[in-house]
Sequence to fold (656 residues):
Amino acid sequence: MKQTKILFLIAVALFGLVLASCVPGGAQPAKGWSGITSNNGTLYMGSMDGKIMAVNSSARTQQLHFPADGEWEYAITTSSQGGLSCGPVSTSVAIYGTPAVDEALVFIGGYNGRVYALNASARSRNLDFPQMRDNEWFYPKTSEVIGAIVGSPVISEDAIYVTSSNGKVYCLDKHFGDKKWESDVLVKKLWSTPYVEGNNVYVSSFDGHLYALSAEDGSITWSFASESKIGFVSSPAVSKGVIFVGSFDRNLYAVKVESNETLWKFAGDNCFWATPLVSNNVVYAVCLDGEVYAIDAGNGTQLWSFDAGSPIVVSPILVDDSLVVVAESGNVYVINPKTGIGERIRNPGNDNKPTINALVQATLCVQEGIVYIRGQDNYLYALDIKQGEVKKFPLVTE
Amino acid sequence: MVDLWNLIILNPMLNGLIALSSVFDGSFGLAIIALTFIVRLILLPLTIRQLNSTKSLQGMQPKIQELQKKHGKNQQKLQQEMMKLYKEAGVNPLGCLWPMLVQFPVWIALYQSIMKALATTPESLLDLFRHLYSWEVVTRALPLDSHFLWLNLGVPDGTMILAIIVGGSMWVQQKMVTAPSADPRQKSMNSMMQLMMPFMFAFFTLMFPSGLALFWAVSNVIGIVIQYWITGWGYLKRGASTQVVTKAGGQSGIAKRP
Fold:
C-alpha cells in the first residue's frame, strides 16, 4: 500500500513535469518570422533572437567580419519577471513583421507591443537608443505598451500604420513617433498587415470583417462582414478596387471595395494563410494545402495550379518573368506565371534535401535578381535563381 | 509515431473541442467543461474500477496491519504473506494505479488540444491548421475567444481563485476515499498524501494555462460526484469513518452512502 502511494505520487509529479516540459505540441512560444526588406543595397530584417539587422549582401559574400560598412544590429529586449526566486530579466522580443524603410529610418513593430524607428547612422555607431536628433523613437513613449504587434508597419507619406493585438490600428508620425490617431477596437485581436491606398487603410479581421479606415483620422469609412461570419486569416491585397483575402473557411475571397459584394470565392484544401500576389489581373495565391493557384482576378476561375509538395506560408514574388515560391519545407520553386510550369531549385549539397534545408515562414525579398530568404534556422539565404546557386550567411553574431 | 498519435487521439479531440466551442456560441470555457464531461463519461468504467480497487485495498487494511504486527521483523515473510492475502482476496495492489496511468494519454491529449486550440501565438495558429478538419462547425469557431468568466484561458490564473478551487476539490476527493488509520506511520503517510496532491495541483494551476486548470477543477467536481454515487461521502464524514478501520477484521474500508 505504501509502495502504491509512493508510485502514485511519483506518477503525479511526472505528469506535471511531462506537461510542463516534455510533451510536444503544446503552446508554441513566440519566436517570430520577420521578413526582409531591401533598400539601397542593404537588407533589413529581424532575426530569430529579436535583433533588427542591416546586412550588406556584398560584405556577406566576401565573408567580412560583421558589422562591415553600413551594417548594424540592434537587439529589441523587454524586461520580464523571472522565476519564483528571480528578479527581472531581459528577454529578446519576437519580431513578426517585415521592416519598413524610408531613407535612413527603419520601422518595425515588436511582439512586446512597441513600434520602433531606428536610424541607420545612429545604429552603425552603436549609440544609445533612441537618438532623438536622428529621429529615432519608440511608441508608446511611456512604459505602457499597446498589444503585441504581428503585422508589418506600412509607410505612407509622413505616417506609419500598424495594427495591434489590442484590436486597434495606429497611425504614428513618421519623424517623431507621435500618435496621429488610433482606431476604435475593431476586433479582439488584429494581426494583419494594413494595406494603404490613397486615403484608405484596409485591414482584415479574425471575426470576418474587412474595414476601410480614413487615413486622416482612423474613422471607419467602409466595412464588410462575411456572410458566414467566418474570420479572415490573411492580410488583404487590394487591386483595382477589389480586396483579395484568405479566410479560415479555406476560401480566398474577392470583395469589391465600397460595396458589400463578394465577387467570387475560391476554395483550397486548406487555408490561404499568406497575402495573395496580384499582377496583370491574375491572383497568385499560395495555400497551406501545398498548392500555388493562379486565379483570374475578374471571375475567380482557376488558370493553373502548381504542387509545391508542402504547405506554403509566405507570399510569392515576381522576379523578372518568373514567379518564385518557397514552401515552408524550404523548397524553392521557379514557376512560369503564364503556364504554371515550374521547377524546384536543387540543393547544391544534397539533391534529396529541400533547396535551403530550413523552415521558411518569413517574407521573401529580391535585390538585383537575387532572392533573399530568412530561414527559421536564423540564416540568411541568397538564391541566384538563374544560376541555381544558393549561399547562406549566419544571422548570429559573436 | 507522432503522426499516429495526432491521427488517432489528438486531432479528434482537438476538432471535437473546437466544434463544441462552436456549439456553445464561441465559448471555449463551456467547450472545455463539456469535453471534460464527455471524457469523464468515456473513462467512467476505468474510474469505477480504480475506485473499487482502492476500496478493496482499504478494506484489507486491518488484515495488513495484523500481518505487519506479526511479521514486522521479517520483511521477506511479510511480503510473501501480503501477496498471499492479495491473491486470496483477488486484489491487485497496483489495481488503483493502472487505470490512472491509462488515463494519462487522454489527459496529455486534452492538454495539447486546449493549448493548440487557443493558438495564443502566431506560430500556434499556423500549427493549428495542420490539425484541423474541414468541417464548417470547426472553421466557424476560429480563432477561439480565450476569455471565460474572469479567466484568460491561455495564461495561468493570477487571482489564486482557480488554484484554490482545484486544490480544494482535490482535497475533498482525496478525503472521501482515504481511510483514517490507527497506525501512526500510515496515518502520517495518509496526511501527507491528502495535502501533497492538492498542493501539487494547486501549484500546477499557477504554472499552467487556466484552460487546463479549468479542466482539472471540473474533472475533480465530476470525480466527487462519481465517488459520492459509489461510496457516499466516505471518510469526509469523520464519525462514520474512524470506527471501520480501527476495528480489526472490518470488511469494508469505506462508509456506505446513506
Chain A has a mean pLDDT of 89.
